[in-house]
Write a structure and sequence with these properties.
Elements lengths: L14 E5 L9 H8 L7 E8 H6 L3 H11 L3 E3 L4 E3 L4 H4 L1 H13 L7 E6 L1 H13 L5 E6 L2 H5 L6 E6 L2 E8 L4 E5 L8 H6 L1 H11 L1 H15 L3 H21 L15 H10 L6 H18 L5 H13 L20 H9 L6 E6 L2 E5 L4 H13 L7
Parallel strand pairs: 1-9, 2-3, 2-4, 2-5, 5-6, 6-9
Antiparallel strand pairs: 7-8, 10-11
Helix pairs in contact: 5-6, 9-10, 9-11, 9-13, 10-11, 12-13, 12-15, 13-14, 13-16
Length: 387
């Protein structure tokens, strides 16, 4: 039969900026970006949505934002700055998602305007999703406030909310028009949140860059001690590796492989099982430990390599495991994470396991008995078994 065929491609471009005191009147970085993007558009608005935790930790932030745009007047700031809770609750409860959509509607935010999200990864995910579906796509700007979001989720292309008790069941692939990493937001993080994001650096180093893993080993003490220079270097390198992966691989995940989700299949399930008492980064660190020991027991990496991973995780102050990660029987709750991961990937389970420090391979099945053995080793904190 005769038919018509259509094919076209869309190029995405965005910058990740690294700065300090983004909303200082002397810092014209944000203003220059806004006025130079589509300069022919004379009327632009910007709606700011702020993580409540960030607003409390930086009590002058809203005033700083208003003062900034009173100086740089070419972009109109919506004066009703929206403050919403941070953390996973903002992705679990759709009323916050509805609040963002309502603000977009009430204040006439259109495709030539901007929605800027300031906060942790959950807030960035939710606000990005709202912006992407409003008017079929409003330009969104990410201003990550945590280590985790500055080096990983905030620089990627994913947006979403949780639904049906499943993480990121609703979502889009839509890059921001820009990311602004402001180091000052990190100064008020708790030690727990400071450490949490480093788990994603361990992950990307293990599957992408052995030299970066060695750097993390050498600088673990400095990172744990909140050394700013070490953290800035870690964030820059981690963000760079994530961006390189997005550019060179499968940014919208049309295939089944998601190497950047190494250690995540159990982490996502653990977050839900713990009612999100376990932070994402903490869960990822435990997931990395589990999959690294599994990689050893299944003959993919040496005991020495697995032990190096465990040592780094512990040196940074992470726990290695959690009671909910134990594999006691075929219907252990954590094993449901494998099936949910399979569904999320489109039917075929694809898990990345290590073949060395800095390299991995895709597997499509996980042996429950080996997984049980790996979980037991971590639970007992025994030495890695030679294989």
């Amino acid at each position: 039969m005769e038919h018509l065929h259509q094919s076209f491609s869309v190029q995405y471009n965005y910058n990740v900026f690294f700065t300090s005191a983004l909303f200082s009147p002397e810092n014209d970085l944000l203003n220059n970006f806004l006025i130079n993007l589509n300069p022919a558009v004379t009327v632009k608005k910007i709606l700011c949505v702020i993580d409540e935790g960030v607003a409390k930790a930086h009590q002058g932030l809203i005033t700083e934002i208003k003062n900034y745009f009173s100086k740089y007047v070419k972009t109109q700031l919506v004066q009703d700055i929206l403050v919403i809770p941070g953390g996973e609750q903002v992705k679990n409860d759709t009323r916050y998602f509805d609040q963002v959509l309502e603000a977009i509607n009430v204040h006439g935010i259109d495709r030539h305007s901007f929605v800027a999200a300031i906060g942790g990864g959950a807030v960035l995910d939710m606000v990005g999703y709202a912006a992407t579906i409003a008017h079929r796509g409003i330009k969104h700007i990410r201003i990550p406030s945590t280590v985790l979001s500055q080096n990983d989720s905030g620089v990627g292309v994913k947006n979403g909310i949780n639904y049906f008790n499943k993480k990121n069941f609703l979502g889009t692939f839509s890059p921001p028009v820009a990311v602004f990493n402001d180091e000052l937001f990190l100064t008020t993080l708790s030690d727990r949140d400071w450490r949490s994001g480093i788990a994603e650096a361990i992950k990307v180093a293990l599957i992408k860059d052995a030299a970066f893993f060695e750097w993390l080993e050498a600088n673990a003490a400095a990172l744990a001690a909140r050394d700013t220079a070490a953290m800035n270097n870690q964030i820059w390198k981690c963000a760079k590796l994530h961006l390189e992966h997005i550019r060179s691989a499968d940014p919208f995940e049309n295939g089944s492989a998601r190497p950047l989700d190494f250690g995540h299949w159990s982490a996502h399930k653990l977050e839900y099982l713990s009612n999100f008492e376990v932070r994402h980064g903490e869960a990822v660190a435990m997931g990395i430990a589990l999959d690294s020991v599994y990689s050893n027991l299944s003959g993919r990496i040496t005991a020495e390599e697995a032990q190096r991973v465990i040592n780094l995780i512990q040196a940074l102050g992470f726990d290695l495991t959690h009671p909910l990660l134990q594999v006691n029987e075929s219907n252990s709750p954590i094993l449901q994470g494998l099936e949910e991961f399979r569904e999320h990937l489109g039917g075929q389970l694809t898990i990345t396991l290590l073949t060395g420090i800095g390299s991995g391979e895709e597997v499509h099945e996980i042996d429950p008995q080996i997984l049980k053995q790996a979980a037991g080793i971590l639970n007992n904190q025994t030495a890695i078994i030679q294989h």
